[in-house]
Specification:
Elements: H1 5-9, H2 18-33, H3 48-54, H4 75-88, E1 97-101, H5 104-118, E2 123-127, H6 133-141, E3 145-148, H7 158-167, E4 173-178, H8 190-198, E5 204-209, H9 214-220, E6 233-237, E7 249-253, E8 263-264, E9 269-270, H10 280-318, E10 331-335, H11 339-344, E11 348-350, E12 353-357, H12 364-378, H13 389-394
Parallel strand pairs: 2-3, 2-4, 4-5, 5-6
Antiparallel strand pairs: 1-7, 6-7, 8-9, 10-12, 11-12
Helix pairs in contact: 4-10, 5-6, 7-8, 9-10, 10-12
The structure holds pyridoxal-5'-phosphate.
Length: 398
């Protein structure tokens, strides 16, 4: 294509070469894939069977997943997905509810909206390392937020949380813990947070934003929503660990703490979700990823990804680039590489810190290529040759 993609896609300039535009998009994405190690989407699962068989019509899961009405919907798959997530998280069977969302942000919005309806006037505590969707949502729902300090490794500072809870003790507390912070994949300690909330006199809700690490930590048994955990709601993304080819996620909330809205007469469905129409294809894609791999398959994917992350960390350190990671993490944190490297490898960067994420599907070859580019960039431009005895005697420089 000789014209720019923007010009070629311009809908006011007929004729449009539709095939060329689509080809161009695919070629651009293919070309970028080799160096895409900075963002958290798994690339190892082939879900084309779902796209081919279901991708040509509208599947609309409007309303609650428990509804039966409508013509073409995948609510039966959505219910199976929600049950799998809830079982994997050990959520009590009699006290669980959830649905398939558009992604982590909608899940956080749905959970925080439910928490706020339950605890009017609550202050919402979130760490400085929390995802940017949290303060945005608080503005949307009109809830006052309290920022809690985070340590350099991304984990919440519990002493600061305790001090802030005490300061606002007259108000109910909604705490957002993160399981897999965006930059360092830190996991906040929900048991410590819960013990602080148990002392909070005005009532409390504990929400976990587990967009990235929810599935791997649940498969490890490190993240549980059983009665002992005291976690009231959780958000998990679908396009991250499950690598669905469309953004999506799930939100799970204790059924007993939800406040009910009404029934919509014209659709004959319960109004329990943030959006009206909902993507039935997303539910089918998540269902397919789970059905074709099972718990063991996904646990193995997580193990392999962590192994590659450990390898990447060691290789970077070996070439003199000080990288580190949390032991459960796919994310490797490193000082932002110099420009030739950061131009070729689009990394997520926050000031002088960047990260790569060894999601399932990222290969050792990609890591080796990245490390070798870093090594080349940091190596002295002119490596002095060892001076021979005769040259050093004559004073010749190399
Ligand atoms: C911790 C965390 N929460 C929420 C989100 C938002 O997810 P989404 O982009 O699916 O809305 C992200 C995305 O990167 C995230 O890392």
């Amino acid at each position: 294509m000789t014209r720019s993609l923007t010009d070629a896609a311009d809908l006011s300039s007929a004729p449009i070469d539709v095939a060329a535009v689509l080809d161009h998009l695919v070629q651009e994405a293919d070309a970028a894939a080799a160096t895409s190690i900075g963002f958290p989407g798994a690339v190892d699962l082939d879900q084309s069977e779902v796209m081919v068989r279901l991708g040509t019509r509208l599947w609309n899961n409007i309303g609650d997943p428990r509804d039966e009405g409508g013509t073409a919907h995948t609510r039966v798959l959505e219910r199976a997905v929600i049950a799998w997530f809830a079982d994997t998280l050990a959520m009590p069977p009699t006290d669980r509810w959830g649905y398939v969302t558009t992604g982590g942000t909608e899940g956080n919005l749905s959970a925080l909206n439910a928490a706020q309806r339950r605890l009017r006037k609550a202050r919402v505590y979130y760490s400085a390392a929390a995802h940017y969707s949290i303060p945005k949502i608080l503005t949307m729902i009109g809830a006052p937020g309290v920022v809690v300090e985070a340590h350099r490794d991304g984990e919440m500072d519990y002493a600061h949380l305790a001090a802030q809870l005490h300061r606002h003790r007259r108000f109910p507390a909604i705490v957002v813990a993160t399981a897999g912070t965006t930059m360092t994949e830190a996991v906040d300690d929900t048991a410590r947070i819960r013990s602080l909330l148990d002392e909070h006199p005005a009532g409390a809700h504990l929400h976990v934003d587990a967009a990235l690490s929810g599935i791997p930590l649940a498969l490890d048994g490190r993240l549980r929503l059983d009665d002992a955990a005291g976690i009231d709601s959780i958000t998990i993304s679908g396009h991250k660990f499950l690598g669905t080819p469309t953004p999506c996620g799930v939100v799970l909330i204790r059924d007993s703490i939800r406040t009910r809205r009404g029934r919509i007469a014209y659709t004959g469905t319960d109004d329990t979700t943030i959006t009206g129409s909902r993507c039935g294809l997303a539910a089918a894609l998540m269902w397919y990823a789970i059905a074709t791999h099972g718990r063991e398959g996904h646990l193995w994917r997580a193990v392999q990804a962590r192994r590659l992350a450990a390898y990447a960390t060691a290789e970077l350190i070996a070439v003199g680039w000080p990288a580190w990671r949390h032991d459960h993490a796919f994310t490797v944190v490193l000082p932002t590489p110099p420009e030739p490297v950061s131009k070729k490898w689009p990394l997520a960067t926050d000031g002088d810190t960047s990260h790569i994420i060894c999601m399932p599907g990222i290969t050792q070859g990609q890591i080796d290529a990245f490390v070798s580019d870093i090594a080349a960039a940091v190596a002295p431009k002119c490596i002095p040759r060892p001076r021979s005895a005769s040259k050093s005697r004559t004073g010749n420089s190399p």
